[in-house]
Amino acid sequence: MYKSPNLPFGLPWRQPANPLVEVATQVPSQPEIVLSEDTGTPETMARMLEATGNYKILRRLAPRTAEPRPAAGRIGLIIDLETTGLDTTRNEVLEIAAIKFGYADDRNTSVIGTFQGFQQPSEPIEAAITALTGITDAMVDGHNIDNTALEQFVADAHIVIAHNAAFDRKVAERHWPVFADCHCACSATGIDWKAHGLGARPAYLLSEYGLFHDAHRALDDCRAVLEILALDLPGTEQSRLAALLDRAHRPQHRIWADGAPFALKDTLKQRGYRWHDGTDGRPKAWYLDADAVEAELDFLRKEIYRQDDLDIVWRTITSLDRFSTRI
To answer: b or e along 228-266 (b: 16 or more beta carbons within 10 Å of the residue's beta carbon)?
Structure first.
């Protein structure tokens, strides 16, 4: 007999019941589902599983069929790049893909065509990059992207969209000057996904609608973004493409808090300012992309510098130079 120090001396001690075991034994058993060879097609089996309410099935995203260019409307382009690293000033392109689509009334109308090309880098691909992208040395061996064909494919686009435009546009501009003259939008940051209860990753956005794709392959990622933008925002009748274009059309103002007191850095961070280290010639300072410039300048003068007549560096940014190396 064991004696517990928490009980009067001499009272017997019992091993307490395991609550996890007890709860587990109370869970009602699920009905058994039998799938035989004569059940039918895989889709029939998927529907049977979903009908139980205990399963959610993801279906592979089917590429849309290309159609002739529409007589009316505008042209959009979705791009994605796979590279040898994350340094936009140095790393090389391994693959670029693009989908050209028509849109009218800010809704996708058709897929016009696709472009995809591999590029052999100057050095072997690192194992970590192959693990991330699925691209091997054998896949790119002897390949060169047709620059002329790519530039012709891009030339008539009214807007270029990337899901990480802050990265993709800088890399694309360095290799193909045509991208420097494009209006650009970012489907990851140009829509307030969090406000609609959503995450920004394409895989997540697709899974919410029962779809999946082969992530980190350039053309598949483009197709995922195309499908995501074709849907409406939750609880609205506004397409995600419409929300993205609305944001792209509105200018922003980049404001530099140059020389801001170090002691107020946390105040700037809480307000959304980001630090730039000055390595590319821009100010070594905190900066913010703001919609309302006068309100932000007033905040800086009163709360940060405490000088009402101080000149503060800022510039207007439109979709023509947003995410570009020019800013």
So the answer is: bbbeebeeeeebbbbbbbebbeeebbbbbbeebeeeeee
Q: In this predicted structure, what is the pLDDT of residue 43?
A: 87
DSSP 269-290: HHTT-EEE--TTSS-SEEEEEE
Q: Are strands 159-162 and 107-118 parallel, antiparallel or unpaired?
A: unpaired
pTM above 0.90, yes or no: no
DSSP-H helix ranges across 11-162: 19-26, 42-51, 127-133, 137-140, 147-154
> Max CA-CA distance within the chain?
93
CB 183 within 8 A of CB 189: no
State the Cα–Cα distance between residues 137 and 31, nearest whole angstrom: 49
Whether 19 has a pLDDT exceeding 90, the answer reads: no
Phi/psi of residue 99, nearest 5 degrees: -120, 125
The pLDDT, as a whole number, for residue 13 is 40
What is 27-53 written as a DSSP string?
SPPPPP----TTS--HHHHHHHHHHTT
What integer is the mean pLDDT of 248-260?
95
Cα 67 from Cα 152, distance rounded (Å) = 18
Question: What's the rounded Cα separation, in Å, for the pair 268 and 275?
Answer: 10
What CA–CA distance (Å, rounded) separates 237 from 31? 39
User: Do 77 and 100 contact (CB within 8 A), yes or no?
Assistant: yes
Higher per-residue pLDDT: 280 or 55 = 55
CA 237 to chain CA centroid, Å, is: 22
